[in-house]
Every structure is written in structure tokens, then in C-alpha cells.
Automatic annotation (TrEMBL):
An example molecular function term from Gene Ontology annotations: alpha-amylase activity
KW Signal (keyword) present: yes
Gene3D superfamilies in alphabetical order: Glycosidases
Signal peptide range: 1-23
Protein's UniProt name: Glycosyl hydrolase family 13 catalytic domain-containing protein
Organism name: Candidatus Scatousia excrementipullorum
Swiss-Prot/TrEMBL GO biological process terms: oligosaccharide catabolic process
All copies of domain Glycosyl hydrolase family 13 catalytic, residue ranges: 44-392
Keyword set, alphabetical order: Signal
InterPro entries, sorted: GH, GH13_cat_dom
């Protein structure tokens, strides 16, 4: 190889991307268009913990000691941080009121909804005369000023509290009791009806959520367990929203690898039916990366998602669901190398980047008080219920975040590089490459005579030596390394790579293209 250059400075990537400030003078919701171009970089936050003030550093918010949980107003202080990391959209875990009866955790699960058309009073800052709605609008407006779109999450089931208030919304079993879906003991199954006849009571409840979202100026909706309701239900709701805001994004929590209903008492609507009903995108199956042993598994998933629009007959996309609030921290699974791989796959694949608060600094989400008896509770649960290795959604707990500053800088670099990749995919081509070792993957993205080459090792325990086949590749042309540990050896029509466990490498290759 005649020239191999290591691009270590952010300035190099900035030059490549031509990145400008995200901020706009007047906010116009373009989230749906951006999502369908795979240019969204989405950061998931639990507003209740996002900027929580844990002054005594015990991991729990002690209100009696003057500590403050996350809320709409104190969250504004972290928006510049997100902007500086390259985030252009935030997915906020449910901001609707939560149930307190038969609850899980001392604050109640965010997904145990007790009202569809009001905001969670836990997210209100009491040190102001502003109403909670005004505080929410202020937060959204401040996000927009920084070029950050806002996505609200709508839960799939109702709390026991809501069941007692409005039993007509719920499915009943043979004994007339509300149905508990899966093992989610704090919620009850909503009766959305069937494809032939949707339940107007449940539909109107969700419609009231859409009305609230649009009134607040939110840019998109992420739907929890979307497959648990009929396609006809979603089509009617999405059509209703699009008449008021054609750019309102609809993202379905659904996967092509899921095939079972959450309860025998409800429907199962597959991902393709949801997309045909109007959803702009879905979760795909990238969370299976932790289980994939061969590179072809990843590449097959990419090819599948690239064909979505053609199969559905409308523009569709997916998110890089490698890590979500339902997934174990990548650090717990495979260490920092796994996090770095997730960053660069999000940056270089034709997906919308997707991360969870704390991911960028390597938070393991290990809470020493988890599942122990609480000193104080705000529900009928006396224990700090928590999922090991997952961001806490059940208690008033600390702000997410680890201590890995190296990982944080890598996160910024990958997000900056994504803008260049979005331009490459606009009219460019994605080509899976042949490799000599099954546990490695390689792909090339080409456009206008230039290419980006990505190579990775799915073996997180051993070094992997592999040969990547690059038809008609000339080893004398310039190759710029964007992400690399050890330099590869280039030959005619191939590249020999020595990959560390879990390593991913990214290169710019000038004057080389596969069509």
C-alpha cells in the first residue's frame, strides 16, 4: 500500500463532512424526511434521570435531602452536551403519568401508563410558576434551537390504576379479570380490537396522546410493542396525525425476528404489516449482533432492510437497534470494543443511529441498591426493582453515565463521520465483500469514484486474521484510515487484516469504486 494515513483529528472528519451548525433560526419539522434518508442520530433518554441531581452520590434521589430528579427544565442544561456529541434527535422514554398500584419500583415503571393525554407530574419542576405543559414546551423549544428533534414514546399497555378508572379499555379473561401480558406484572392489556373492528375507546385514548404530542410541538412518536395492535388501528391513527403534520415520524418497536404475541388475548401484527400501515421505520434485528457468530448474519440483515422500501412500496428505514433500553449495556456484554463497533456500525450502515443515555461513556447500569428494600417509596412497591445492566426506568435514580472519556471521544468522531456516510448512501451503493474468515464482515460503500471500506471481527475473544477480497483494487492508491488499531497489508484485489477481538476498521479509499 503506497499511502495509509491515520485520520486522528476531528478536524479531518469535519472537513470531509462539511458539517455546519445544527441550529436553525426557525424550527421546521423535517424528522420524517431525515429518518428516511438515514441521517437521524437518535439518543434515548429517561427524562426522570437525564439530569438528576444526586448530590450525595448514593445513586438514589433523596428528595428529603434537597436532591432533584430529572425534569423538563433541568434537562435543558444538557442539550448543548448532546448537540456537541452530534445528536440531532432525542427519543424520550414515556413522559405520561405512571401507575402506583401493583407497581414495579419505587417511582413506577415509565411504561405503566395511567393517562394518555397528560404529562407525568414527576417531570415537573416545582421551583417555577410555569405549568408543566409550559415547561415541556420550553424544553422542546430549547431542543429545536439546537437542531435536535424530539420523539415521544407511547406505552403499549395500561396501569392497574387506569384499569380501575376505565375498565372498558382493557381485555378481560374468562373470569372477567384484566389480562397481564407476558410477565409485565405492573400493566394490563389494552383491548385495541381487531383488523375488522378496532375498539373506539382505546383508539380515542391514543388519539388524545397524538393531540397532546402535536400541541406540544413534538416531531415524532415511538410506539412501544407496536405489534400488539392491529394494522388497521395504526393506519387510522397515523392517517389522522399526517393530516395535521405530514412530517410526524412514526417508529414501531417491532422486529423481523419476532413472531409471537405478548398474550393469547391479543393480536400479533408482523413488522411488514406495520410498515404498510404507515410506520416510517422499525427496530429491525440488529440487537442480535451479540449472538451473531458469522459476518454474513449482519450483512444479510442489512440487505433485508435495504429491500424494505421496494417490498412495501413506500420509503421505509430502520434504526441501529444494537443497544436499546431493553438491552444489556454493551460494556457488560463484550467490553469497550463492542461499544466502539456499535458506534461505527451506526455511522457507516444505512440505518438511523440509535443510542441510550450513558452508552457514550460506558455506563454498565449496575445499581448497588437494585432489588433491595427501599428506605422510601412513592408506589406500593417497597423494593428498588431494577433490571441488571439496563438503564433504570423504575426508580428516582442517578443520572446515567460512565467514566470512559476515550469512548466518549470515539462516539463524537463516529457521529461526525456519519454525515459523510449519509452523502455516500445518497445515490451510492452498498456491497458486501467476501472474507476468508466467517466470523468477520466487510462491506464497501461507493459513490462517484470513491469508497468507504468497513471491516470487523465478531469474535470478541480472539485475534482474527482475514483476507478481504476487493475486486480490481490497486494497492498503490491512497487509503485513509478513519478507525484502525493495526495497519492492514494491501495487495492486488485484496487486503489482509489482523483484527483484535471485536475490532472494527474504517477506511476511505480514493479513486476506487464497486458498482
Amino acid at each position: 500500500m503506497r499511502s495509509l494515513k491515520k485520520a486522528v483529528a476531528l478536524g479531518v472528519i469535519l472537513t470531509l463532512c462539511g458539517m455546519q451548525s445544527f441550529a436553525k433560526e426557525q424550527w421546521i419539522n423535517n424528522l420524517r424526511d431525515d429518518f428516511l434518508k438515514n441521517s437521524a442520530i437518535i439518543y434515548t433518554i429517561n427524562l426522570r434521570t437525564f439530569n438528576a441531581q444526586d448530590l450525595n452520590d448514593n445513586g438514589i434521589i433523596d428528595f428529603d435531602e434537597g436532591e432533584e430528579s430529572g425534569n423538563f427544565l433541568n434537562a435543558i442544561a444538557r442539550l448543548d452536551e448532546l448537540h456537541d456529541m452530534g445528536i440531532n434527535a432525542i427519543h424520550i422514554l414515556p413522559v405520561t403519568p405512571v401507575g402506583k398500584m401493583k407497581a414495579m419500583g419505587t417511582a413506577g415503571s415509565l411504561y405503566s401508563i395511567s393517562s394518555f393525554d397528560t404529562l407525568n407530574p414527576q417531570l415537573k419542576n416545582e421551583n417555577t410558576v410555569m405549568t408543566e405543559k409550559e415547561q415541556a414546551v420550553k424544553f422542546i423549544s430549547e431542543a429545536h434551537e439546537r437542531g435536535i428533534a424530539v420523539i415521544f414514546d407511547v406505552p403499549a399497555c395500561g396501569s392497574y390504576d387506569l384499569y380501575l378508572q376505565r375498565p372498558e379499555l382493557f381485555v378481560k379473561d374468562k373470569e372477567g379479570q384484566p389480562v397481564v401480558p407476558a410477565d409485565w406484572t405492573d400493566v394490563r392489556l389494552l383491548n385495541a380490537g381487531s383488523e375488522e373492528k378496532i375498539n373506539p375507546d382505546v383508539f380515542n385514548a391514543y388519539k388524545s396522546f397524538v393531540d397532546m404530542v402535536l400541541e406540544l410541538g413534538v416531531d415524532g412518536i415511538r410506539v412501544d410493542v407496536a405489534h400488539s395492535k392491529p394494522a388497521a388501528f395504526w393506519k387510522a391513527l397515523i392517517d389522522y396525525s399526517r393530516k395535521r403534520d405530514p412530517q410526524l415520524l412514526w417508529l414501531a418497536e417491532s422486529s423481523d425476528s419476532w413472531s409471537e404475541a405478548v398474550s393469547p388475548y391479543t393480536v400479533y401484527t408482523p413488522y411488514d404489516k406495520l410498515l404498510a400501515a404507515g410506520f416510517d421505520g422499525y427496530y429491525s434485528s440488529y440487537f442480535n449482533l451479540k449472538n451473531w457468530k458469522e459476518g454474513k448474519d449482519l450483512l444479510n440483515q442489512v440487505e433485508h432492510d435495504l429491500n424494505l422500501s421496494k417490498e412495501i412500496g413506500q420509503a421505509k428505514s430502520s434504526i441501529g437497534s444494537f443497544t436499546t433500553h431493553d438491552e444489556l449495556s454493551p460494556i457488560v456484554l463484550n467490553g469497550p470494543a463492542y461499544s466502539e463497533m456499535i458506534m461505527w456500525l451506526n455511522a457507516t450502515l444505512p440505518v438511523n443511529s440509535y443510542f441510550v443515555d450513558g452508552f457514550d461513556t460506558g455506563d454498565k447500569y449496575i445499581y448497588p441498591w437494585a432489588n433491595k428494600k427501599a428506605a422510601k417509596t412513592y408506589t406500593d412497591d417497597e423494593y428498588y426493582f431494577a433490571h441488571r445492566g439496563k438503564i433504570d426506568i423504575f426508580n428516582f435514580s442517578r443520572k446515567p453515565g460512565g467514566k470512559d472519556t476515550v469512548l466518549q471521544e470515539e462516539f463524537k468522531r463516529a457521529n461526525l463521520f456519519k454525515e459523510y456516510m449519509v452523502s455516500m448512501y445518497d445515490g451510492g451503493t452498498f456491497t458486501p465483500l467476501k472474507v476468508s474468515e466467517p466470523s468477520t464482515f466487510a462491506y464497501l460503500v461507493s459513490k462517484n469514484g470513491n469508497s468507504v471500506l468497513v471491516i470487523g471481527n465478531l469474535n470478541f475473544k480472539n485475534i482474527n486474521n482475514t483476507v478481504v477480497h476487493l475486486p480490481k483494487f490497486n494497492p498503490e492508491i491512497d487509503v485513509i484510515s478513519i478507525e484502525m488499531v493495526s495497519a492492514p497489508k494491501a495487495g492486488r484485489s485484496k487486503m489482509e487484516v489482523n483484527l483484535a477481538p471485536g475490532e472494527i476498521q474504517v477506511f476511505l479509499i480514493n479513486n476506487y469504486e464497486l458498482k
